[in-house]
Amino acid sequence: FGSMNRGGLPGAVFELDDRFTAYTPQSIVESGLDGGKMLLRVNLEDPGTANTLAACASAVTDLAASRRIAMLEPFMNQRVDGRSKNVLTTEAVIRSMAIASALGATSAFTWLKVPVVEEMDQVAEAATLPIVLLGGERSDEPDEMFGRWEKALRLPGVRGLVVGRNLLYPHDDDVASNVKTALSLL
Question: Out of 35, 85, 174, 185, which could bridge 68 as a Cys pair, Cβ 3.0 to 4.6 Å?
Fold first, then answer.
């Protein structure tokens, strides 16, 4: 998967205008990749959100036309003390998934990449698209983290993990052991 957009720089006034600054649908096809991953931060008070929604919708349509997966990582977002913050409640994740699911001419090749939150059973129930789990912020409680992942992976529609920093930079520096544990959950 090629990461497509991350043009919204943290702290910039245009932070939520996540422009496509990396892979394009065409370059994903030309590179032989399975699909493209897009960040979709939805802040109802930030006009930059509209550009991101339109760009993601276009990419979803173009990827589907090439029979490539569009992996959308949606978040409801708000400004707190002048900083952009993703809202990680069950209700917010469900709302962000509903928005992401409606983007593009078809959702036939769309997957959702969502954080593990409380009441993941409600999240999975609300989804009509395949879900992969986001690894989240770096955790110093790996047993708790793996337990949340394991429980969520049992839910209908949840297909796997797309995790990074928690496996690459674990609190105990034992990458191999943490990857082995994550694989055992699948």
Answer: 35
